[in-house]
Amino acid sequence: MQRNRLQHGGRIDRSRPLRFSFNGKSLEGYAGDTLASALLANGVSLIGRSFKLHRPRGIVAAGAEEPNAIVQIGKGASTQPNMRATQVELYDGLVARSTKGWPSLRFDVAAVNDVFARIFGAGFYYKTFMWPQSFWNYYERFIRTAAGLGESPLRPDPDVYEHRNVHCDVLVTGAGPAGLMAALVAARAGARIIIADEQNEFGGSLLSAPDSIDAKPAIEWLQAVVSELRTLDSVTMLTRSTVFGYFDHNFLTIAERCTDHLADVGGGCVRQRLWRVRARQVVLAQGAFERPLVFCNNDRPGVMLASAVSTYINRYAVCPGERAVVFTNNDSAYRTAIDLKKAGGTVVLIDSRAKGAGANAEAVNQAGIPILQGHIVTDVGGRSRITGVRVAQWNGDASTTVESTINIECDLVAMSGGWSPAVHLHAQSGGKNTWDDNLHCFVPGKVAQACVSAGSGNGKWSLPDCLQDGLDAGKVVVARCGLEPADVALPIAGSPITHSIEPLWRVPAATGPDRCPKQFVDLQNDTSVADIRLAVREGYRNVEHVKRYTALGFGTDQGKLGNINGMAILAESLGASIADVGTTTFRPPYTPVTFGVGAGANAGALFDPVRKTAIHEAHVAAGTPFEVVGQWHRPWYFPRGNEGLHAAVARECVATRNSLGVMDASTLGKIDARGPDVVEFLERIYTHNVSKMRVGRCAYGIMLGEDGMLMDDGVMARLAERQFYLTTTTGGAARVLAWLERWLQTEWPELDVYLTSLTDHYSTIAVVGPNSRKVLQKIGCNIDLDRQSFPFMSVREAELDGLPVQLFRVSFSGELAFEINIDSNHALQMWHRVIAAGQEFDITPYGTETMHVLRAEKGFVIVGQDTDGSVTPVDLGMNWLLSKEKDFLGKRSLSRPDCLRSDRKQLVGLLSEDNDTVLPEGTQLIEDSNAALPVPMCGHVTSSYYSACLGHPIALALVEGGHSRKGDTIHASLTGGNSIPAKIVSPVFYDPRGEMQNV
Amino acid sequence: MLLIECPWCGERAETEFSYGGEAGIARPKDPDALSDAEWADYLFNRTNPRGAHKELWNHAQGCRRWFGVERDTVTYKIAGSYTLPVPTGKKGP
To answer: Measured between alpha carbons, how far is A949 from A936 in angstroms, rounded to an integer?
Structure first.
């Protein structure tokens, strides 16, 4: 039974009852309800327990600022924590539960915290769990269990999300009276506009108040405006869409909740959509937040914001209480008193101000509502539902204590401490907030971007003022967009209502603020007046520090309810002005957004592109495990039968060195460089003498950063007098091309050089081993492959099996080897051809792992594995590559004192002395295994494998002064405190004279 | 997210560009003639101003051209974009 539901009125549909459950109990509401309004209609006043003190809490607000009614919605993989019941639209079958309270909401074991509340002051956790330090792990288990609001789903999110990028002339944030007026002006002027509102329908405050516009109910004006906007193609209207971020250069983000308000919609529908908007102009019209009043036990269920009470009555036809006390320091709550009276309750109005409220007071008097001027509510009775208030006369002096002389029985307190504009987006955009001494709130000040604030978000409280402000804002943005203004008449919404206010930041009590019952400032974090005062006594001065010490303004509501009160109380404690104390930083998101909407479609297979070589399908057919190298998927090894990695790699290495191996090396970066000045250009980039290379020859080339550190390496070939074929590392392909382009464009634009990436156009098949020449001859090659005609480190244009190829005689293994560079369209065909022709030599395909072992046996480095951006070519023993006859990038740095140090880490080989242990890569090297802690480190292992060809483990390492330490024994520090001795040797373990590759 | 004007392609979102640091750092013509301190100054030291800053951007996911931008490091406002100096016809160092 919806016992608090009114018989008439509201924007709910009484013909569409909806069943839902809260904490396992089945309840009924109506279409048009929020979860909060449905709970209030059913008389559910206890919604949750507070975060720290576990005090019973009820619904306070009707919007984004709700601090207490934080619920978990749904079950299983789609469950969503930390939802504000005030913003959850009701649907049939909705399942909600409280996120705090164990073992049950009514009987919360941790409520004992409240009994000891005095010791749970500001900084309690910092102070109490500091000592002894080692006990933190013990404490943490209990604190972590007690903390936290909701539960994350444990399974992957099954829902669909998407992103949409749009541009517009004007983005209007908020579709209340001001936003709608601005939108109307902009739309009639022909601007392309987006108007977004977080609620399920446009209207803002018009939905919550019985206002009239142009002598008709305001709802009729609203419907007319919405209908007109809807007819225009240039207008995009977004409901259930929160503008949550305002970034640089008028880039804003909107989270649109497409299906959250529906019962199960089945798969495939977009649940939430992220709009990424670049707007020429922005109208900020998000409205204002009412402030609570800070009195003793102001957190008890039944204490609500006055405006929220009006919203529940007028919009949802729910009267949250029968006997109400309205407590205010300003005029706006007078309307709530009248709303309550009309809803059939008894009302007493308590105004902290000595003087009356003009026209508003007359209306309240006429309604027969008693007003107590110059009185305050000092305390509240009742625990899980209020039973009454204590009221005292007050002379306006905030520093006094007061005696309560009046008790009033009630089940609802509607409070109003004044209003604060929602300046969040304005502040996010870089705009300043200014304290207004007349309005007693922060209003948008100096703007930083192309935006205008309007309406109550701009400190305009009454409807006529909001309409006027929206009209003005619309004209401003239309003019800034260079459009002709259209004629829009200002609607008549009665004479402006006075909205006087006398500040009341902290309500005096019978005892001082540090002794009286808790006066809450931030309900979600249980931050009280006493906590803020304690922080000040302990030396905190900066509002950002006080925030972090007291937790004021954290949580899902981010201080929307309590922050301004908190800052005012901080200012009072510091003896400073509120303007000087200022606000904490406003950061996106305005309200919480899901990870799903942030990710959009960029999840799973679409998270990152996968690059596959042209030969990929052959590797898949071979059952190859793949190694992910950047975006590439490269064959890792080619197991036969049930072989594991190590057995396969050992077999592949031996087969390649003894007979024939083949590898897909297509991922190497390939760049065609040509043009009249290409030699001069490459001379400046590479360290060796490029001009001395003859056409048809290859060279191993390295390039350095200007800091002298090795950046990338690869084989380069001179295909013609003014044409080179450059190869780069797999990971460096894009980086190297960008590097070359940068120098050409920014520093040497006079050089006439053309660069083309060929990485995807050409595939590379490395045919490796003593029988590699034979297999190419068998396939059918139109050129002589013998040593004299086609020597090591040369390149030939050739035809293999009738297909044109660039044939390289280079070797990354130390064996006789050929690299077939072929149009990628023919690569798979050539791969199969090579495999078939190689059968008689037991051709063995191998992957990245065997490639690594073969090259490490030869002491060839991998940039990025054996180097880390702090390694010079000299450190690697590559002095022979550094031309003395020319300048090249990074050369000057090699003679910097730091690069000349003899104790730099240098590349060496390492052999474990037990001849058995494969040292883990990354192992730290130390001189003395018995040295006292902390042990100085003298290097680390960069590459380490078991060499099947040599019959023992090998490793490459960077060791301080390593080049002059051949034969020394150092120690590899293993995990668990052990270490084993290893001998420093030459990094070339196999065929040190390089005879095998030259045959 | 910044809105950057590529001199060739027009205004595009920041995600299409890559940043190249301070503009106008000319590579010394004869590095060997420099002292270690002078070379280090070229290599490491930047003006890092509070306010107007001329910097290099590359339209990496567009035309791949490098160009200059004057951006305020406090407000992030961009005063304008400009193409880099045209080739002089003379060969470099």
So the answer is: 35
Verify whether the Cβ–Cβ distance B43 to A745 is below 8 Å. no
Buried b (16+ CB within 10 A) or exposed e, A235-257: bbbbbbbbbbbbbbbbbbbbbbb
> Between A890 and A130, where is the model more confident?
A890
| Best to test chain B binding among A277, A704, A746 (most B CBs inside 10 Å) | A746
Backbone φ and ψ of A682, nearest 5°:
-70, -30
pLDDT digits (tens, 9 = 90+) for A465-489: 999 999 999 999 999 999 999 889 9
A302-417 has the same fold as A160-288+421-480: yes
Unique residue bearing structure tokens 């208030």: A389
Of A247, A250, A750, the CB nearest to B87: A750
Q: pLDDT tens digits, residue range A158-180?
A: 999 999 999 999 999 999 999 99
Domain B3-25+45-82 - what CATH class?
Answer: alpha beta
Q: Which two tokens stand for residue A690?
A: 């490029």
Least confident of A117-121, A251-255, A572-576: A117-121
pLDDT tens-digit profile of A388-446? 999 999 999 988 999 999 999 999 999 999 999 999 999 999 999 999 999 999 999 99
CB neighbours of A651 closer than 8 A, spacing ≥ 6? A640, A643, A844, A948
Strand-pair partners of A237: A195
Q: Quick: pLDDT tens for A890-921.
A: 999 999 999 999 999 999 999 999 999 999 99
Of the candidates B75, B84, B93, the beta carbon closest to that of A746 is on B84
As a whole number of Å, the end-to-end CA separation of chain A is: 95
Q: Does A748 touch chain B (CB under 8 A)?
A: yes
Report the candidate in A737, A891, A745, A754 with the shortest Cα–Cα distance to residue B23: A745
How far is the C-alpha of B24 from the C-alpha of B32, rounded, in Å?
A: 21
Q: Say what the pTM is.
A: 0.91
Distance (Å, whole) CA A159 – CA A140: 34
A571's tokens: 């200012």
The Cα of A595 is separated from the nearest Cα of chain B by a number of Å equal to 19
Q: pLDDT tens, A914-949?
A: 999 999 999 999 999 888 889 999 999 999 999 999
Could you please report the per-residue DSSP string of B33-84? GS-HHHHHHHHH-----SSEEEEEEE-TTTT--EEEEEEETTT--EEEEEPP
Q: What distance in Å separates the CA atoms of residue A989 and residue A859, rounded to the nearest whole number?
A: 7
- Annotated domain spans of chain B: 3-25+45-82
A872 touches chain B (CB under 8 A): no
Q: What is the pLDDT of residues A751-763, one digit of tens each?
A: 999 999 999 999 9
- Tell me which of 3.30.450.40, 1.10.510.10, 3.50.50.60, 1.10.10.60 is the CATH number of domain A302-417: 3.50.50.60
Whole-number Å distance between alpha carbons of A895 and B33: 12
Of A448, A706, A749, the CB nearest to B43: A706
pLDDT at A197 over 70: yes
- Give A252→chain B minimum CA distance, Å: 9
Q: Do A751 and B2 touch (CB under 8 A)?
A: no
**Domain A160-288+421-480 grouped into CATH 3.40.50.720:** no
Q: What is the CATH number of domain A664-846?
A: 3.30.1360.120
Q: DSSP letters of A712-743?
A: EEEEEEEEETTEEEEEE-TTTHHHHHHHHHHI
Q: Between the CA of residue A89 and those of A36, A92, A260, A702, what are the distances in Å?
A: 9, 10, 8, 63
Calculate how close chain B gets to A743, using CA atoms only, in Å.
Answer: 10
Q: Where are the domains of chain A?
A: 160-288+421-480, 302-417, 664-846, 855-884+897-998
Whether the Cβ atoms of residue A173 and residue A243 lie closer than 8 Å to each other: yes
